[in-house]
Amino acid sequence: MEREAASHVILVVSGNDSVARVVRRAAKGRLEVAVRAWTAPDRELLRRVRPKLIVIDDANSEKSERVWMLTQIKRFAQDSAIFYLASAHTPQFERQVRAAGVTYYGSGDDRRLYAVAEKLCAQFAEAAATLRL
What we know:
The chain is of the alpha/beta class. Strand 3 (53-57), helix 3 and strand 4 (81-86) form a beta-alpha-beta unit. The protein has a single domain, classed as Response regulator (Rossmann fold, 3-Layer(aba) Sandwich), CATH 3.40.50. Helix 1 runs parallel beside helix 5. The chain has 5 helices and 5 strands; from the N terminus they run E-H-E-H-E-H-E-H-E-H.
């Protein structure tokens, strides 16, 4: 787990080490990556770190907590873009997640989804490094 500092730009909320590896690889050292397990939102962490991008993977979470967790994260990190990796897609769930403030949504086969996440995070890291976010 990396040190907590205001320089973290991408926050990964996941119980899956593969997601964190994908994001770290995509960031290519240009940005720091903070990783947290799927637990109650850490309001102080979100305020201190102020991530520009939050990658949420719901694979190891309780279905009943997913929209609540997303709503809480969005509440404490209003300016953050959110990429939500859904482990199981339904049109109803996608509508709920998008209504809760998700910027990007993806679901499906892990390899395809990880490829999309890696590309998005790499583009974000490049832009953030260029703009010095």
